[in-house]
């Protein structure tokens, strides 16, 4: 068992419709890298050109916004739940 990642509807086309995945990662950046390797397209939709989290994408670890934790270096462990939540207004999540 790894980290459970909840996938929002706009990104499910990358995962063939899966709404959650199990990922082995030690941090949010590692989790994004794993998602990109397994389901190409996640990196560009979640991170900007500078490698920072896009302003219209929120990522939560067990209900806590990673922006108020350690950002992309936030540690995750087995049993944690990560939710990717696009902002309600503004931005472009799909391409």
Helix residue percentage:
10-25%
- Taken in chain order, the helices and strands follow as EEHHEEE
Number of helices: 2
Radius of gyration: 12 Å
- End-to-end separation: 31 Å
CA-based shape: globular
The CATH fourth-level homologous superfamily: Beta-grasp domain
- The secondary-structure class comes to alpha+beta
Low-confidence stretches: none
Q: What summary fits the major beta sheet?
A: 5 strands, mixed
The CATH architecture can be named as Roll
* CATH level 3 topology: Ubiquitin-like (UB roll)
Please indicate the percent range of residues in DSSP E strands (runs of 2 or more).
15-25%
Average the pLDDT over all residues and give the rounded result: 92
Number of domains: 1
| Order of adjacent strands in the largest pleated sheet | 2-1-5-3-4
């Amino acid at each position: 068992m790894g980290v459970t990642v909840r996938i929002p509807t706009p990104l499910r086309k990358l995962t063939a419709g899966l709404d959650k995945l199990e990922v082995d990662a030690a941090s949010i950046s590692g989790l994004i890298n794993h998602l990109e390797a397994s389901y190409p397209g996640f990196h560009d939709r979640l991170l900007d050109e500078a490698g920072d989290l896009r302003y219209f994408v929120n990522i939560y670890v067990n209900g806590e916004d990673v922006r108020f934790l350690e950002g992309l270096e936030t540690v995750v462990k087995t049993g944690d739940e990560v939710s990717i939540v696009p902002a309600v207004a503004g931005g472009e999540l799909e391409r």
